[in-house]
Amino acid sequence: MALRVPVRALAAFLALYLWDDRKTVPYLMPKSALEHKPSLHDDAVLITDKFRDLRDDYHPPKHPIVLCHGLSGFDTMLVLQFPQIQAFSAEKSPEVSAKAPKKDPEKDLEKVSREVNSKLPFMVNYWHGIEEALTQTGVTVITAKVPPFGTIAARAELLDALLREKVKDLPKDPSDGRVKINMVGHSMGGLDSRYLILKLQDESCPYRVVSLTTISTPHRGSEVADFVMSYVEKDQFLQTLCPQAIPQLTTKYMTKFNEEVRNDPSVAYFLYGARMRPHGFRLFKGTYEILRWEISRAGRSSVDNDGMVSVDLAKWGNYVGTLDDVDHLDLINWTNRMKATVDQAMFQKPPAFNPIALYLDIADMLSRNGF
């Protein structure tokens, strides 16, 4: 019988399992070390309550926005059956290649849709209310559908296939006959987009990416992936469960990735990071402390992170700022309702972050910059 567990519950279970105080392992920090005041580098802008409330004057960009989801997402968030995780990543993880092979778009799209619909019992919207809010503001939105646990290259190839289909009926730029698009990636979605821009987009492509905005994307890797792989590499059973995406999110792999997947000078890049405060009802408390330990062990001074990606490793190119007191799922409007309810009831403290306001502001920023 398959065990069906929501993504957030799975993350919480893994954090609690690994965070067992009966185990004498080096990642357990002394109690005194847990008294932590968030830090921020002098060159980074801290964004506190800018996105608390919605404004009245958002303007849509000229070109469509493509929403690119992170690990475990589709156009919907997946509720997984453990034995099926590997189904999306059974192929050996490929190295970063100079030129990715082209595939048939229609066959690729049909295949990934079949896999998701047949293997996964329940799905909920990944971009919780965000796509609808953008559309209501007049934005043309394309929502990505790529393998939830696939490699960066595999996800990017399917994203390319989807875009080639979706832009067929959209207005083309008279200068080159191609459709200009803005890409917005959460977490791993930003890496897929970078790969697509440099490795898959060419002169024959029916679309042209003019901007990429990433939100808590592990551009330089994730210390959580490093931590997970330190256990997976030693355990054959864990290796059978581990999706191929995880080893590609390690700091070691991303060092090589960044050497070969540089920024395209013709594309505008905008980056956001996020940091949470590990108090109250926080899903990512366990992973936050794992990140702190890994960061401290690496000798870095700033331990700011959102429970999955550290601020330092989310920086790559034009860094806009760090969203304060926001965790990795808050960023896609999966706000911790329990925390919000307790804050409101006990402290009369309304939420300081509305993710819909963030995405509408990104659309407005793109509009102001001529995109």
UniProtKB/TrEMBL annotation:
- Highest taxon of the source? Eukaryota
Per the UniProt record, one Pfam family is DUF676
Gene3D superfamilies documented for this protein: alpha/beta hydrolase
Q: Which spans are transmembrane here?
A: none
Ranges for the DUF676 domain? 166-231
- What InterPro entries does this protein map onto? AB_hydrolase_fold, DUF676_lipase-like
Question: PANTHER family from the entry?
Answer: LECITHIN-CHOLESTEROL ACYLTRANSFERASE-RELATED
Hey, which family's this protein in? Belongs to the putative lipase ROG1 family.
Protein name, per record:
DUF676 domain-containing protein
Organism of origin is: Metschnikowia pulcherrima
